[in-house]
Every structure is written in structure tokens, then in C-alpha cells.
Amino acid sequence: MRAPRKPRAKTISKSFRIDEAASEALEREATALNVSTNTLVNQILKEFADFERFARRVNTVKVSSSIFRSFLEQMESDKIIEIAETAGSSIPQTFAISKSGRVGTESLLDYVRSSAMYAHLFEFNETDDGERRLITLVHDFGLNWSIFLVHYVTAMFQQIGISPEMEMSDRSVSFTL
To answer: What is the reported pTM?
Structure first.
């Protein structure tokens, strides 16, 4: 049996003038990715609309995964926990308020999903049995990143009075709401 398809988002036609060099770069990248230039431009605009414009408000910095991994490997776990708790108590809330005007379970989960999709910090998986939701974050950054995520997510949800049940390994973090 086939899984039901998600309804396609409504599209509209727009016309823009863009820099010639930017257009050529888009066409080259679209060809390399085996997608149309229109699809690539839509993906870029969606990333801006869903994530980048809000990430700027919390001063997000883009860094290569190898540099990020090196930082994590050099840090002591007590410092990682301190940073995670401080950041988890403010950054997700700022992002959620900027994006949806409120802080709640759904807006915070949207922040986590967006972090997976656009910041590439982990893969996001969610299951819902009607009573509880299990969210699993799978990553390739080692134990220190799992430690960070456990404390970050815990602090994030504690701000709205929720204490998620947490589990972790060196490559994943799971929490139940």
C-alpha cells in the first residue's frame, strides 16, 4: 500500500531581475544537482523564508562540519553543558517568537525541524502514537554533541514547563514529549 502524498504547496508566478553572474551560478548548480533552475531558486527562497531570516536574528554563524567537530572534541563536558543550558533557555524561544509570534511545543519543534533541514545539525525523525511523541535527532558529531543536545533540548522545553524524557548515544538523542 502506498503512503499518502503530501499536498503540493500552492505556487505563484513572479518575475525578477537578477545579476547575470548569479543567474549563471544558479544554472550551473541546478545542472549539477539535476534539478531545474526554477526548483533550485524555489529551494533557496524557501530556506530563506523558513529559516535564514530568523536565524540571522539570533546571530547564527555558518561553519564547516570539520571545524565544528574539532571544537566539540576539544571541549570539556561541563562547559558544553553550561553553554547548552544557557543557549537552550533563550535561542529557540527567540527564533520561535520571530517566526510564529509565540513559544509553545509546536513552535519549538518547528525550530528543531528547521535546524535539521537548513542548518544540517542532525537528522530529525518523529513518531506519534497519539499519546506521546518521540523525536530522534541523528548526527555525526560524537558524544559531546549528544551531551549538548540533551541539555539544550531539555532547557528549551523547560522554558514552557515541559520536561522531556531524554536518551542519548554518541550518534543520537531521543526525547519524548
So the answer is: 0.81
